[in-house]
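Per-residue structure
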Amino acid sequence: MAVAAVLIGGVIGLAGVYGIGRLRGNAEPDPACQASVDTARRMTSLARGEVAAVAVAAAPRTLPALTFALTIDRVLNGLCRPFFGWVSDMIGRENTMFIAFAMEALAVWVMLLTRENPALFAVMSGIVFFGWGEIFSLFPSTLTDTFGTKNATTNFGFLYISQGVGSVLGGPAAAWMHDATGSWFPVFWLIIALDSLTAVLALFVLKRARAGFLARQLNT
C-alpha cells in the first residue's frame, strides 16, 4: 500500500512538473492547464466588485469580493466539520448527508443565477464550502459505524484514495467539458446534478443498504 501511494504521488508530481514546464516554455500551453488558469481568471473577474455591506461588518475596511469569499470559505469549511458531526449524532449519518449535499446543490444554483452580485457570490461560496467539509466528519464515522473499528484505518485509507482519484481527474474533466461546450455553465450544472444525486442516494439507497447490512450482521 505504501509503495503504491509513493508511485501514485510520483506520477502526479511528474505530471505537475510537466504541466508547469509546458506553461513556462515556448510551446503551446496544455489545454487542461490553460483551462485551469482561465477558470481562476474568470472567477477573479466575476468577483472583482466589492462586498461593501458584508465586508465592513467583518473588517475595518471594505475587501474585494474574491478575497472575502476565499476567507470565509476556509473558516466555514473548518467549522462545518464538528458541526455536521454533532448534527449526525442527533439525526443520523445519512439524514445529515442529505442535508449537506442538498445545501451544496442549492448554493451552487443560487451562485450561478446571481453571479453578477459580488455579495451573494461570497455568501454562496461560503455555504458551498460549509457543505463540502462534512465528508471529513461523516464518511469516517459512517464507515466505522458500519464495519467496526478493527480495520477502520485501512478502510478509510481506501475511501480516501477514491477521493484523491476524484480530485486528480476532476480538473481535467472540467477543462474537457469547457472545451467541448465553450462554456463553464455545463460544469456547474453537472456539479448541481451530482450533489443532488448524492443527496438522494444517501437518503434512499445508502440508508437502506446500511440498515440491511447491520441487520444481517446481528443475525449471524
